[in-house]
Design a protein that fits this description.
It is a single chain. It is built from 14 helices and ten strands. It has helices at about 10-15, 20-40, 45-55, 60-70, 75-115, 135-145, 160-165, 175-180, 210-215, 255-270, 330-335, 355-360, 370, 375-380, and strands at about 150, 160, 185, 200, 220-230, 240-250, 280-285, 290-295, 320-330, 345-355. The strands form two sheets. The protein has a seven-stranded mixed beta sheet, sandwiched between helices. A three-stranded antiparallel beta sheet has the order 2-4-3. The longest helix is centred in the N-terminal third of the chain and has 41 residues, at about 75-115. The structure holds 3,4-dihydroxyphenylalanine. The site of 3,4-dihydroxyphenylalanine (DAH) has 11 residues, from strand 9 and strand 10.
Length: about 375
Amino acid sequence: MTTPESKTTLPLVHLGITTPEELSALFADLRGRFDADCACAHDESSWKQFRDAWLGRKSGVLTLVTDNWLKPATAELKRAVGAGLNELRAHVESQIEARRVAIESGTEASALRRERVDLSLPGVHRPVGSHHLIRQVFQEIEDIFVSIGFSVVEGPEIETPYYNFEALNIPEFHPVRDDMDTFYLELPSSSDKNTAKTPLLLRTHTSPMQIRTMEKQKPPVRVIVPGKVYRRDNPDATHSFAFHQIEGLAVDTDITFCDFTGTIEYFVKQFFGPSVKTRFRPSYFPFTEPSVEFDVSCPFCGGTGTAASGGTCSKCKGAAWIELFGAGMVDPAVYGFVNYDAKKVSGFAFGIGIDRLAMLKYGIDDIQVFFQNDVRFLRQFP
Ligand code: DAH
């Protein structure tokens, strides 16, 4: 099959072209072919191929026209061939350049389209954390006590035996120390031979802050102390070697046992709801006299010991009461350690185990979840 461009490989005489009319029809065919091919060059590589096919020095169509049509043309046709070739060249060159510009701007447009920032897309979601449940319970309890005139103080987690035990009326070899076995810290040996080594330990309770507060401040004192405490307990569902307490201390010249129980009752009702009842039972702590243990009527079964299903309440195990925390009137012996006049002042103290309270209130059955930081647990308490 002879295509218009394949005819450029032969001299005009071989093609049987002898008149200017035939020649211009031949050029028109070739131009038509060029226009059709030109529209097919869509990208840079097909455009390059197309350009070389028409303008290539060695075997481009225009070179072939020059070599095969113009050069061997008869004298009568030479002018016309030259004119036709010039016209075709001008057309080819301008169209090829126009095509290049079109392809380039098209590539640019598609690149722009590709790289455009779509402001309507949703952003990268960074989850915002929340307060740990223990912190939330601290906050809840702090709010209750702050609303009745207590202030919040915090103290060191590394303590001396003096504050953790002795000043709280727990001398060395006192049996309650057995319950509060803790972590003692090995101190780096000091180069200064004169500094007597004070042993240090991780506090077993927040009670040392009773002493530190009273040392710093004359009565009236009304403080609560949230914080972390440590004991050498083996971890299980209800024991952890680190846990949390809130200590409370109120000392003034006229604080009675009624103030004490009234304050505790107020707190418990605020925390568990107005329908709960409180009771206290005699107990023992070296730094309070008398000492008590506070119970709350089971908030889950309404203090009946029977669950809604008719069975035994699983929270209070049918007892109708739940043991809450220890407390008492400050033992006068403690005032001796802080230079308070035991004849003039009186007060009460309490120590609330926060983990236990949080477990009770939020139905958690394993204390370990507070320390594992598993987001599946944490997310349940946003
Ligand atoms: N410190 C005690 C403990 O950790 C709890 C306690 C009991 C604190 C009675 C008190 C209190 O302030 O009065 O076991």
